[in-house]
Amino acid sequence: MIRLYSALAVGLIAALLGGLGYMVFVGQGQTVLAQCRGTSISGGGGSIGGPFELVDHTGRTVTEADFEAKPTLVYFGYTFCPDVCPLDTARNAQAVDLLAEQGYDVTPVFVSVDHQRDTQDALAEYVRFMHPEMVGLTGTEAQIRAAAQAYRVYFALQETDDDFYLIDHSTFSYFLLPGHGFVDVIRRDQSPEQVADVLSCFMDNA
């Protein structure tokens, strides 16, 4: 198993997210959803999310406005990731399918942090394999960094002399609701069933 976080990454994420995953966060003006939350976010939920402009796997330029109409589960990773990203993305896809069986419609989104290798074609192949409704997003390095900063996502290229480089990155998924924006993060230790339960709670109480 490759090392996913450097010491710097761990420190940065801990500082940014303030013990994410072990306390209950009550959002400003969103106490009706507090019963569904299992996380605490430094600075509040309003500090996560914001404007971005990226390109989807079909070549279409999209912004945050294109995902405001439906519940959306967002994950930042890269297609060359050998272990963590495929597992997390497959978990999200399974959760979306479980929710579909219950009548919920959630869009899974995969945002690449690898602007060099994750071309439109590479993303298209990846998301088609993961889930038929999954949207893949990429862009220039500046566009990707702007989106990552909006969601407080850490990522950093590991130094290497060849094209087989790896990227350290945070592994949270982000759930967005129409009319609310970002409402909670999903940790990678949560099962598809647990993710589906959390997301359905939010959708039932929104």
UniProtKB/TrEMBL annotation:
GO terms for molecular function: metal ion binding. It comes from the Bacteria. Keywords: Copper, Disulfide bond, Metal-binding. Cu cation binds at residues 81, 85, 169. Transmembrane segments: none annotated. Pfam families: SCO1-SenC. Disulfide bonds join 81-85. This is Protein SCO1/2. It comes from Roseinatronobacter monicus.
